[in-house]
């Protein structure tokens, strides 16, 4: 017997896997390639991602009572400064997530919810990541490079994967068994 998380109903009335790994991996790779092409052709995409990231981090730091100064892509707060580079914004990890959501078997309504919820979740995670990096840099500057390059890169992968798995579980509860 097949559970509804393993199978979903297709438009032709046949059962099909709810999660097709090859299809999802291909879609993620395609989204990544499209994202790289878009960023190379339209630098405004990257600029927008950086600006949104800076604005969010600046707002959250401001809520803590810290005075935040911004010079170009550098944010300064409490004697600590971090440059927000293109890799610090969540637009590229989000596009990997979006590729997985679009490639998965779900209704277009479920995909739309996943795309919006995923964008919010990944943006919140990324903001938290940068805030923690501010704290690490202020408290233990020698730990900054390791936590930035290794821990948070792995954390970003896990956050994207976690958001996708949560979305898959959510869709499985809303897909009727066949």
Describe this structure as you would to a colleague.
There is one protein chain. Strand 4 and strand 5 (80-83) form a beta hairpin. The chain has a three-stranded antiparallel beta sheet, covered by helices on one side. Strands 1-2 form a two-stranded antiparallel ribbon. The chain is elongated. With 178 residues, the protein is mainly alpha-helical. The protein has a domain at 17-42 and 85-174. It has helices at 21-41, 43-63, 91-103, 108-139, 141-174, and strands at 7-9, 15-17, 68-71, 74-77, 80-83. It contains five helices and five strands; from the N terminus they run E-E-H-H-E-E-E-H-H-H.
Helix-strand blueprint:
Elements: E1 7-9, E2 15-17, H1 21-41, H2 43-63, E3 68-71, E4 74-77, E5 80-83, H3 91-103, H4 108-139, H5 141-174
Antiparallel strand pairs: 1-2, 3-4, 4-5
Helix pairs in contact: 1-2, 1-3, 2-4, 3-4, 3-5, 4-5
Name a few traits of the molecule.
disordered N terminus; two-stranded antiparallel sheet; elongated; about 180 residues; mainly alpha; 5 strands
Instruction: Please give the oligomerization state of what you see.
Output: single chain
Enumerate the strands of the largest sheet in spatial order, edge to edge or round the barrel: 3-4-5
The helix-strand sequence is: EEHHEEEHHH
The N- and C-terminal alpha carbons lie at a distance of 11 Å
Strand content: 5-15%
Please tally the β strands and state the result: 5
State the share of residues found in helices, binned by percent.
55-70%
Which spans of ≥5 residues are poorly predicted at pLDDT below 50? 1-15
State the helix count: 5
Structural class: mainly alpha
Instruction: Summarize model confidence as the mean pLDDT.
Output: 85
Sheet with most strands: 3 strands, antiparallel
What would you report as the Rg, rounded to the nearest angstrom? 19 Å
Inertia-based shape: elongated
